[in-house]
Write a structure and sequence with these properties.
Length: 468
């Protein structure tokens, strides 16, 4: 509705008050202080104390791993149709097994009555506890979807060490997390096998795997940046993680270390444990003394997930000397793929929790993920629509992680066939598996939009070529 507001008038007999129409802004910022939802609203947690809730071990022990445990938590707040929907997904479609900490469940339908309809519509539930009715039946997977869509395993130079970019490596220390996200890009390795996916396995003992990483880095002084991930580093026993990080810090060529952990949001209690805080401070002090940038990268997809405990965990990391805490989210339909959702999340991250909005990735082309993925043009529109609201340093970049290319801002494509949903991208470096490919920098690499988002002609084309 058009609003009017009074304006000052110029004194004089011929001037009367004039109302000037104002259109308002597409997004209106309103500060929303963080609140920890009341976990006692769930029948299964009515008698849980604050001491229990804030204990990391209690959170881990009480993770929801199956439908029976979810029933115990939710009681009769959702009906049998939901559980049947969930069971159908678990038996045939899910690429990740169920593992959800209480902290994450507590941010689902946080401030409204819990009903089946509310739970189904909840954005956090939609990617943490997917059900069969969420997924598409026409195109559940893109024809070019693959288990390791970014070919990280193909680029292993040692078990769990991906050398994809010239100066950076990804170190997968383990294949487990405190929680499993339905859209996980490493669904071929991370977590338990499901009926839909027989997972790959790490075979070396952790000590041998870590030794192999360090040996490779010593032999390749051109690598200066190590992303320490998995799985999630919160599942590495702290003494083992600290030892690994200290070994990295002994390498003069390593100048950046990033710890990848969704648990900063999904299990903040872990990062608030005394031994973890004290150990992180030792690592941060050593990094600062040696001039190495130490950061934590977490993964938050919706503003509901930001609570006072999350803010406390982030601030504690900063207080003990971690240089930055940054967020890398994933764009997903039904979760956050609107400018309002993204801006609400970014203001909660940056303004309330001290976490820098850094990247939003387009959801990768893994199996059974088409209901989450957005087309490139949608991502471009979102980047356009969030500009100008946040501080420049806290305005996230929306990127497409193109197979064999890497992260590219969504406006960097070289050609785009909107009808068939095929975008083409170029790159300026060779991955570790292309050292002998003289044409690698001259090629165009394709990325594909979800087929259901295409115009009718494009959908018909793909239907005709479904089996090609």
């Amino acid at each position: 509705m058009t609003q009017t507001q009074p304006v000052d008038t110029i004194p004089g007999p011929r001037h009367a008050p004039v109302a000037v129409p104002t259109a308002g802004q597409p997004y209106e910022y309103r500060r929303s202080p963080l609140v920890e939802p009341d976990w006692a609203r769930f029948p299964g947690w009515r008698h849980v104390t604050r001491e229990q809730w804030e204990n990391a071990q209690w959170q881990r022990v009480n993770c929801v791993k199956n439908i029976k445990q979810l029933r115990t938590v939710l009681g009769d707040t959702v009906d049998e149709t939901f559980y049947a929907d969930l069971e159908a997904d678990q038996k045939a479609l899910a690429t990740m097994s169920m593992l959800v900490p209480p902290q994450m469940i507590n941010t689902m339908v946080p401030f409204a009555p819990m009903t089946t309809e509310a739970f189904l519509a909840d954005p956090v539930r939609r990617y943490m506890i997917p059900v069969a009715s969420d997924r598409r039946t026409d195109w559940p997977s893109h024809p070019y979807a693959s288990r390791d869509s970014l070919h990280e395993h193909d680029m292993w130079v040692a078990e769990g060490l991906t050398h994809r970019y010239p100066t950076k490596v990804l170190a997968e220390l383990l294949s487990t997390c405190p929680q499993y996200c339905g859209h996980c890009t490493r669904m071929d390795l991370v977590g338990n096998s499901t009926p839909a996916v027989d997972k790959l396995k790490l075979t070396l003992k952790p000590v041998d795997r870590y030794d192999a990483h360090i040996a490779y880095l010593k032999a390749h002084p051109g690598v200066r940046d190590v992303v320490v991930s998995g799985g999630d580093v919160a599942n590495v026993p702290w003494r083992n993680l600290e030892s690994y990080l200290m070994r990295l810090l002994e390498l003069e060529t390593v100048r950046d270390i990033r710890l990848a952990t969704k648990a900063l949001m999904g299990l903040p209690q872990h990062w608030l444990q005394n031994d973890v805080v004290e150990g992180l401070e030792r690592v941060a002090r050593t990094a600062a003394r040696r001039g190495v940038n130490l950061a934590i990268h977490t993964h938050v997809n919706h503003a509901q997930s930001i609570t006072p405990l999350v803010a406390k965990a982030a601030q504690t990391a900063l207080d003990v000397g971690v240089r930055d805490v940054r967020n890398q989210g994933v764009l997903m339909r039904g979760v956050n793929a609107t400018s309002e959702d993204l801006l609400d999340l970014c203001f909660a991250l940056q303004g309330e929790a001290g976490i820098l909005p850094y990247y939003f990735y387009m959801c990768d082309m893994i199996p059974n993920a088409e209901h989450w993925r957005v087309p490139v043009w949608h991502a471009q529109q979102l980047q356009h629509d969030i500009m100008g609201y946040l501080p420049g340093y806290a305005t996230p970049r929306i990127v497409c992680d193109v197979p064999f290319v890497g992260k590219r801002w969504v406006h960097m494509l070289t050609e785009y066939d909107r009808e068939r949903g095929i975008s083409y991208w170029t790159k300026n470096y060779r991955t570790s598996i292309e050292s002998a490919d003289l044409e690698a920098l001259n090629k165009r690499y394709a990325y594909y939009d979800p087929i259901d988002t295409l115009p009718e002609a494009g959908q018909s084309w793909w239907a005709a070529h479904r089996d090609d």
